Amino acid sequence: MKSSNTKKNEAAERLKNVIKVVMCVDPNENTRDREVVTARQMFFKVIKDNNPIWSFSYIGSLIGVGYDHATVRYGKSVIEDLLVQDDDIRVAYEKILGLYENGDRVTEYVHREDVFNKLKELDQTIHNQNYYLSELKRDFGIVKEKVNMVSDNNSEYVPVVEMILQRLPKNKIEKAIPKIRAVINGL
């Protein structure tokens, strides 16, 4: 259960900033997105392992969205399971732990909000580029299908096929190509 009181602690704030830099997400975000949940669970594990006398309730109040002791215990156990199963999570954990335990030497680097914002911006750019590439691959596949559909034997149908494909919405072209091919091959 979430509570409204949020406590501040220098060690917790430093760890949140380390997680922001390494995982490119803010564990304080009040969302259930997988990346944010994993970052929050990473926070629970690192802070509890480094401060064993702190209660789970206290740790929950540090994260900023007021999680109770059960959520912190569960999140810590989930991340411990993921560390065994997922190499990417283990690498991120080791980076976070290394930066957090080195404390003062990395504090100036980690507290730079512009680094976090730049990483987030680059991540969005990569996402946009990947989407653009997938669209290009899809369009290339459609062009390849058009070329294969209208072979040398059926070259007189090229204008008709092009007209049909131009008038179809993009999302229906992929379904229409096999039907058009069947019609042309039947002629």
Content of β-strand: under 5%
- Summarize the helix and strand pattern as letters: HHHHHHHHH
Based on CA atoms alone, the radius of gyration comes out at 26 Å
CATH fold assignment of the largest domain: Chromosomal Replication Initiator Protein Dnaa, Chain: A
Mean pLDDT: 78
CATH-level-2 architecture of the largest domain:
Orthogonal Bundle
Helix content: over 70%
CATH superfamily descriptor of the largest domain:
DnaA protein, C-terminal DNA-binding domain
Stretches where pLDDT is under 50 for at least 5 consecutive residues are 1-5
Protein topology:
Elements: H1 10-23, H2 34-50, H3 56-62, H4 69-85, H5 87-101, H6 104-110, H7 113-149, H8 158-167, H9 170-186
Helix pairs in contact: 1-2, 1-5, 2-4, 3-4, 4-5, 7-9
How is this structure best described in words?
By secondary structure, the chain is mainly α. It has two domains: 10-111, Chromosomal Replication Initiator Protein Dnaa, Chain: A; 139-186. The chain has helices at 10-23, 34-50, 56-62, 69-85, 87-101, 104-110, 113-149, 158-167, 170-186. α3 (56-62) crosses α4 (69-85) and α7 (113-149) runs parallel beside α9. The protein is elongated and about 80 Å long. The model is unreliable at 1-5 (pLDDT under 50).
Gist of the model:
The protein has helices at residues 10-23, 34-50, 56-62, 69-85, 87-101, 104-110, 113-149, 158-167, 170-186. It has 187 residues and is mostly helical.
